[in-house]
Amino acid sequence: MDTNWQPTASLEVLRLRARLMARVRRFFAARAVLEVETPALSTAATPAPHLESFSVVYHGPASGRLHLHTSPEFPMKRLLAAGSGSIYQLCRVFRDGEAGARHNPEFTLLEWYRVGFSLAELIAEVEMLLRAVLTGVRALPLAEHYAYQALFQRYAHLDGLTATSAELRDCLLQQGYQPPTGMTDADIDVWRDLVLTHIIEPQLSGLVFVTEYPASQAALARISPDNAAVAERFECYLDGMELANGFHELSDAEEQRRRFERENVARSALGRPIMPLDEALLAALAAGLPDCCGVALGFDRLLMRAADAKHIKDILAFGIDRA
Fold it and tell me: Does residue 159 fall inside a structural domain?
């Protein structure tokens, strides 16, 4: 008998998913953070070189190509610029080409923005949310905090900000990892990411926050006013799995446009299509984004840790192989 119609997650895990989602909503309701919904379809798409958007053709008034969002970030920032105040969203997002033990092309993202918060205050709130959501499900140890530079020094024995591509390559080779062919010394952030994902992350345990990422990895974050070499950005790990990525949000429209254009140049160099820029977002930034910090947290990955699941399909009603 064909059993491929059956869920990939157990009903017990699906009930846990519903329970944790309810806790997320209670957490934000208690703090008067507004839940919002924004479109999953957009005429624009992220130009980030490492992300690929699904696209569809819309037949109707103003017909044309639309893109499924990889994150609700851009329209949420438009709401912030319109005066929404602090907001959050639990939604499905879509990323083409992503599949594996921790990746599914369709997954659930929790994203929120806190007006007037510092990055340290948002980091503290992420920890509070994790403890509230996981109460009675799994215990969390005291959080560890590292600057990116110190994290590399402790776990890879080199300086993550100043190490050369050759030094990063040697670190990988010494640990038995053979880097992909075709990489050059100019791919410094790719070398850093390889050391982070293949050497450092497997050594992490418990709850870990990493701050002060290289300025070249700022994405949509501000550069630190105290140190131009680092961005006001953090990531959160739980037992070596990245859960969340947060920024002190960039509000300079012209700088954001320059970053988008550089990302499209990088996409072109990789042989990937140029993506249309989100002019509505840039106009919102020009109109005035309030000082705020924001974070995106992979809800499915959090559920994996809560359920002690080894593969993402084990916490999805239907994995991509049964979609």
Answer: no
Global pTM reads 0.95
**Predicted pLDDT at 321:** 84
- Sheet with 106-115: list strands edge to edge: 34-35, 87-94, 106-115, 292-298, 241-248, 233-238, 207-211, 144-147
1 is a domain residue:
no
The parts of the chain modelled with pLDDT lower than 70 are: 1
The answer to whether residue 26 is domain-embedded is yes
Give the CATH number, domain containing residue 266.
3.30.930.10
Residue showing tokens 């995106």: 296
pLDDT at 295: 98
Q: Which pLDDT score, from 0 to 100, does residue 63 have?
A: 81
Q: Per the domain annotation, does 42 fall within a domain?
A: yes
Structural domain including 24 reads: 11-141+206-322
